[in-house]
Structures are given as structure tokens and as C-alpha cells.
Amino acid sequence: MALEGTLRDFSLADIFQLIGLQRKTGVLTLRAPEDVVSISFLDGKVVGADSLNKRLEDRLGQVLLKTGAVTQSALDQALKAQVETLERLGRVLMRHNVISREELRAALEQQILQIIFRVFRWQDGDYHFSQETSIDYDHELVTPMSTESILMEGARMLDEWPIIEKKIPDRSVVFRPTTAARTVEIASADELEEMSALDLDAEAPPPSSGRLRVSAVEADVLRLVNGVNTVDDIVQKAGSTEFETCKALYGLVTRALIREATRDELSRASHAAPAAGAAAASQATRLPWLAIVLVPLLAGSVLLIPRNPLNPLLGPGPKLVPRLVSATSFARMLGVWETLHARGDLVGSYPASLGALSEERYLPGSVLQDPWGVPYRYVVRDQSLILAGSQEDGSPDSNLLLSRHLPSESEEQPGERGVSLIRP
User: Fold this and answer.
1) Where are the domains of the chain?
2) pLDDT for the residue numbered 296
């Protein structure tokens, strides 16, 4: 069966229905600017899905973390063992009795469905179905899923996503809990059934006891709303799927249990949170390849930058030592700044915290703090990338500030490099 074209002419639901009704075996490949996704079918049932630009929440280890099946330390040990044995991560975890077969089976199913349901939201893209005589998949751990059940859930999500996006239009939004959130209680089974029968646009009935009832998913999401986490952070950390997490946020916003943080609140939070995250970063013990490339830049900057007190144009001053340390700090910031951009070019996104540069071995952890031992403040939010240093007493230094505007897709121009120094 030759099946190919664009999603504008033939929707994904129609493709799934056709493959399911004809009980076809093969691989459906979907291509769009944001990703390339392949979905495997066996006799018309889904047995696998993979994504070229797989999101963090789609990775098996992250799914297991979200569901509480593994701890971060156990996952780290399993990842190290995987490098040595080249086994699949799930098999490594089962072999070490970290997770059961049923926990792995449930995590694999959730991972597959998350990828598929995200494709249901694509407005455009190309598709091609390659019919095969057989499909290679893990028969012991993956249970074939009917296209009918996937289509029903996908249709429900498509109906509700536009309503959710009215309250959560941007995944970079930061919410804070309101005073009403202190009185919430997890609803009973009967109350949950009554709540689930309501449409998203319907208003929830007032609680009989005067205390607001929330579902277990909403309670888990509310725990992550702290005025620092973005919606994307919450999606990655919550124990539910992307859709269920965003739906829970919608319900919390609608009932005024959370509200969007103001600019002043974001500014205060960004001053404290990044510094704490960088201080907790693990210290690398060896110099990575990227740091070796940046060593000449760090050394040359000490002598060449305008703020350097050794620059002959400025000459010595009464506070030579603090100025020298400040210049060293600025040179170190330039190295971190270039590493951030290099990492962005390699991975396709900037890290959530500076600690990631140490964890991923781009830079030693010691470089992520100034000569006084104060971690650099790092903020990437609202199309802005900011790296800031401090004075000797730990207060912000207006002379140690680098910023870059992150253009949207419509603004981005080839070869644009929008780095600027913010002066007092």
C-alpha cells in the first residue's frame, strides 16, 4: 500500500484509521519543521514510536522519574552501566531489580503515547507509510495498542487543548500559588467522578465543607508551582503526561488557586534561584574539550577587555586589586557566555541552569562562580538570555552583565549574533 502526502490533505486520524482497518504492518514516518516522528504498526496496532528531537519528558528515564519508579541516583547508575554494556536502559534497570517488568511496560506505553499525541496537534507536515512484512519490537515489554483507543483519546485532547491554551498560551509562563491554595484538599473518589463529568468551560460546584477539592494530579502540579518553575519545568517534573499536567494547571488557574507571577516577582526569583542552582552543581574533575578551546580566550580577555585595570589606557587606580579580580571575573564570564552559545548550537537549546554545563562536562563547576566564590546568576526567559556577576560582598555588579535577545522564529535572521554589554 502506497500511502504518502501532507497532513493538510489527509489528517493523522484518517491515516491511523486506514492503517487500523486494513490491519497493515509497517512504519509511518511524519516530518514537520519541529520534528521527525516514526510510528511502528503490527497488524494495524501501534507497537512503537520514536522522535528525532525527543523531548526530555519523552525519554524513558525521565518517564520513570516522573512516575516515581526510579530515583535520580539509581537512574544515573543505570545510565553508566548502559554505556558499558550497551543494553537498553529498561533492561539494565530490570536486571538490577530497580523496577519491575510491569513498571517498565507502563513507562514504555506512556512514552509511546506522549510522542503520538504530540503529533496529533501538528497543523502541517509530510507523511509516508512504508509497508513491511514484519516489525522489530520488544514483544516481552510492549503490548500492541489499538488505533481506535488512541484515536478516541487523541480526539478528546484535540478538543480540550484550545481551551487550555486560552489560560496557558506560553510554556515559559511562571505561576505562583494564591492564598486560597493553602486550603485545598484532595477530592474523594465520588467527588472526582463528579468533577470529571464537567466540561473544561463549566464552573465547578462550590465545596460543601468550604475547602476546595483538587484531584491528585492537580495536587501534584500545585506542589511544583512556586514562582520559579515555568510551565515547561512543571511538565518535565510532574508525574503526569504533558496534557494532564497542562489540564491540571488550567483547572488551578480557573479556580484562582494559582496566578501568573508579576515582573517584580520574576526579577526577585531570578536573582535567588539561579545562584542556588549553580552552587549545587557537581564539580567536574577533568578539563573538557570545549574548555581547552576557550583557554586562550580567557587568558587574552584579562589583558584586552576595557574594564581590565592592567589596560594601559586606564592605568592603575586606588582599588587595583578589586578591579583586577572584577576583570578576572568578567573574563571568566565571557568564557561561560561563549560556552552557553556553543552548547546552544550543539544541542539546539540553552540549559535550564548553569549547573547543566558542569553536569554535561562542558566546563568545570569552579568556572561557574566568580573569584569570590559567588555563583554567576543566569536567566533565560522571555526571549532574553542574561548572565550576571556580583561584587565582593555578593551584591549585583552592573558592570558584570551580559545579555542577548533571543529572537522568535519570525525575527531570527541568518548569521545574527545579538550579544550586547549592558552598562550602568
Assistant:
1) 3-165, 168-261, 280-421
2) 61
